[in-house]
Amino acid sequence: MIAIIEYNSRKHKIDLSKPLDISIAIDTSKENVNAWYLDDPKISPVSDGDWVGSVQKGADVNFNNIQFNPHSHITHTECVGHITEEVYSVNKELSKFFFLAEVVTIAPEQLKNKDFVISKKQLQNVLGNKKRDAIVIRTLPNLSDKKSMRYSNTNPTYLLEEAAIYLREKGIEHLLIDLPSVDKEKDEGKLLAHNAFWNTQGEIRMKATITEFIYVSNKIKDGAYFLNLMVAPFENDATPSKPTLYEII
Q: What CATH number corresponds to the domain at position 178?
């Protein structure tokens, strides 16, 4: 099914029958992606006396409880409410879901303190003069074990504050990355990249979002795509999401 999208007075074609899913699901049948020192997510049937909500155990339906944290266990999209005292819900702040995005691949740089980071210069090199609503960052090495990585206490790659400022000033509204956070795992609560991207010291960018824990297959080439940023309707600072790309044809 071919759809025509008009963007910046130009018409683009995408094939809706060929979605490119870049989300990581909760899957308790195997080792689940995990960060922030929490136990793994749990999916289990409801028990009520002798009744167990499992067809295998004699029930008419499967009726499961799910226990998880969106920041720790699944691809999730968050708004500025993630770091503000005032409560904001991504479900209310994100009111549009289709954006022109640029997929980029970056090999993180190593600082003198041994941290691996994404710098402003690297983003400038891959974005150049392109005007995009969203950026999808794939970091190297890009192995499938990102979908089951145990990130706690590993000091993963993160964005430098200068990189987040650059994306904000370039007008990027939606930042997607294949890491547990855009910030350093332990940074004394500074959250420099989060604060810079949402501009918390100025006019807060209420409609801007950060999506973490994506996985971009190596089969997906760098370049321009249309992004469908689908989110679950949780009234919370962050919610599970299923970002999906469509090639422009």
A: 3.50.30.50
pLDDT single digits (tens) 46-82: 999 999 999 999 999 999 999 999 999 999 999 999 9
Of 207, 118, 221, 100, nearest in space to 166 by CA: 118
Query: Total domain count for the chain?
Result: 1
Q: What tokens were used for 249?
A: 């044809």
DSSP H helices in the chain = 70-73, 90-93, 120-127, 161-169, 192-198
Residue range of the domain that includes 95 = 1-33+69-245
Question: What is the pTM assigned to this prediction?
Answer: 0.97
Q: Roughly how many angstroms between the first and final C-alpha of the chain, as a whole number? A: 12
60 in a domain, yes or no? no
> Looking at the domain assignment, is residue 200 inside a domain?
yes
Residue 211 lies in a domain: yes
